[in-house]
Amino acid sequence: MSLGVGDLTGVRVLLGVTGGIAAYKAALVARLLVHAGATVDPVLTAGAERFIGPATFEGLTGRRVRTSVWEDIPGQTHVALGRAADVVLIYPATAHTIAKLAGGLADDLLTTTLLAATCPVVVCPAMHTEMWQHPATAANVATLVERGVRIVGPDDGTLMGGDVGAGRVSEPEDALAAVHAALAGRPDRAGGDLAGRTVVVTAGGTREPLDPVRYLGNRSTGKMGVAVAKVATARGATVHLVAANVALPTPDGVTRHDVTTALELRDAVLGLVDDADVIVKAAAVADFRPATVSGTKIKKADGIPTIELTRNPDVLAELGARRDGSAGGTPVGQPGSPLLVGFAAETDDPERHGRDKLARKGADLLVVNDVSRTDAGFATDTNSVIILGADGSRTEVPLATKEQVAGHILDEVVARLGDAGPTRAAR
Ligand code: CTP
After folding, report:
1. 154 preceded by cis ω (within 30°)?
2. CATH superfamily, with its number, for domain 193-426
């Protein structure tokens, strides 16, 4: 799997290997990273050295393998390695190392280096199922996720001793994909596979006023849309963020257009459509608005109000209709007919509703979100989605950070922009 952020030439990866049977697979990870062009600095814990020797990593990476904080005191190995790394990958990560990271302990070279590193960190846990499911491990993992650490896996499978269950280290290819995704969020990785493209992203939730102080709104915070905007910029796109009541900061390099209501959002998007190669509609747009807005505050002394609603335009469906020419608009592949990505927030049978919505709205891709889960959907930092394609494709993204999910969505976009021909690229 590729996240489409190009190769890893010039990228320094600190590969932390800790003491588990899965340490042997770290050799494959080292090889994949080197093949992708990365410079890999392996750091082995004492436990890792019992499972696999430094010579293997030295041979694969062509770099000195570090194992001790006491090796080069004047050179301050931990600080130097921490500062130099563009990304840290810990593969495999034992329950003990995860606990040390969560607690900020620094009793060996790897954990000391981690405290000195400010770059993205990817952790691939591996342990017995009971250890993975222990509340202490779960709490430590949650702490790391909250800090922005990307946790990849563990997978289900055969564990040491023949046991079967959750706890098997994720596959080397998945670790590599996570490294790509981690780097995709960095502004200095621009010039990627969306270079020359213009991406419009809607984010947040619209508010439909009832009177000067009240509105009908929804729980969307804009995190998912902002993550898409951030990753798209990092991958080289010119990005316009149409932000409906979003309290989050604007990612570097993104042009923001603040809106409040569905009608304002529609105007902003339609004003940008002619220049857009891609429109990602992550905003939760109100389907209805009060038919009349009171000019003065509605007073309770006047009795219980009856609020009559009227329909808002469906912006995504409108864009979809323009594309197939049915609204007298522009056919697919021409300026003004961007690739359309919709979102669907569902609480029951998400996939069936998603397929319906995809067809009904004429989008190319639909990202289906089960908002009844507590670890995905509104206001969370993680999400788990299914990306449905009008071409029948189906990509499941298990629980991941919203930036990682954004990376997967943009992979699907990039794959389809290739088919859209040179029309837009040539403009
Ligand atoms: N959308 C839109 N304009 C609207 C409502 C929704 O552009 N008035 C877009 C959203 O931005 C999203 C997609 O349509 O990308 C699906 O939104 P959702 O609220 O799930 O769909 P609805 O058509 O409102 O369906 P439901 O009946 O489930 O509310």
Report:
1. yes
2. CoaB-like (3.40.50.10300)
Ligand 1 close to Cβ of residue 201 (< 6 A)? no
pTM score > 0.90 for this model?
A: no
What CA–CA distance (Å, rounded) separates 44 from 26? 10
From the list 377, 50, 405, the residue with the least C-alpha distance to 222 is 377
Return the minimum-mean-pLDDT range out of 79-93, 362-376, 412-426. Answer: 412-426
**Shared fold status for 12-183 and 193-426:** yes
pLDDT band at 420 (very low <50, low <70, confident <90, very high): low
Residue 300 structure tokens: 């309770």
What does the pLDDT read at residue 3?
Answer: 35
Cβ 287 under 6 angstroms from ligand 1: yes
For tokens 């009832």, name the residue: 210
Which pairing describes strands 39-44 and 12-17: parallel, antiparallel, or unpaired? parallel
CB 50 within 8 A of CB 19: yes
CATH 3.40.50.1950 fits 12-183, yes or no: yes
| 312 labelled catalytic | no
User: In the predicted model, what is the mean pLDDT of the chain?
Assistant: 88
- Ligand 1 atom with the smallest distance to the CA of 318 is 7
pLDDT in tens, 303-339: 999 999 999 999 999 999 987 655 455 555 566 689 9
Per-domain residue ranges for the chain?
A: 12-183, 193-426
